[in-house]
Amino acid sequence: MSAHDFSFTTIDGKPLDMKSLAGKPVLVVNVASYCGFTPQYTDMQALHETYGPKGLVVLGVPCNDFGAQEPRSDGEIAKFCESMYDVTFPMTSKQKVIGPEAHPLYKWIAAEAGEGAAPKWNFHKYLIGKDGSLQGAWPSRVRPASDEVRTAIEAAL
């Protein structure tokens, strides 16, 4: 199995088959609007603008699993991200990312890297390689535009 075996629904209700992203690295980040890490949307957008033309896909996955910090509907989340952070990278519909009801991609990540790799809070980052393998993971406190994340993205490109 690989990350390419999973699919999402986009925040605007369209199917997003991860197979369609094969050949591109994907930075998957569980996001929330009412979190102290929410300003990381700025870094995510900057990565999208810098590395998107080279093949990187930044994928935001809204979730309400941590501190109930994403209570909004998909439409409200999309409007917030566009108006506050000028987000143009793809976003999924709101998902569970931990526990028995977690989205299958997040269950796969935990199976691949161990339960300790499951998100502990909002803005946990995973880098999926061009081949669909898990290439890296960073906790919330590591900014998406950090040298650590950028170096991994550049290597994956």
Automatic annotation (TrEMBL):
What family does the Swiss-Prot or TrEMBL record give for this protein?
Belongs to the glutathione peroxidase family.
N-terminal signal peptide: none
User: Gene3D superfamilies annotated for this entry?
Assistant: Glutaredoxin
Q: Tell me which InterPro entries the record gives.
A: Glutathione_peroxidase, GPX_AS, Thioredoxin-like_sf, Thioredoxin_domain
Q: Which CDD domains match?
A: GSH_Peroxidase (cd00340)
Tell me the keywords, alphabetical order: Oxidoreductase, Peroxidase
Q: Can the keyword Oxidoreductase be found in this entry's annotation? A: yes
Q: Which PANTHER family match?
A: GLUTATHIONE PEROXIDASE (PTHR11592:SF78)
Q: What is this protein called?
A: Glutathione peroxidase
One GO molecular function term?
peroxidase activity
Q: Where is the Thioredoxin domain?
A: 1-157
* Pfam families, A to Z: GSHPx
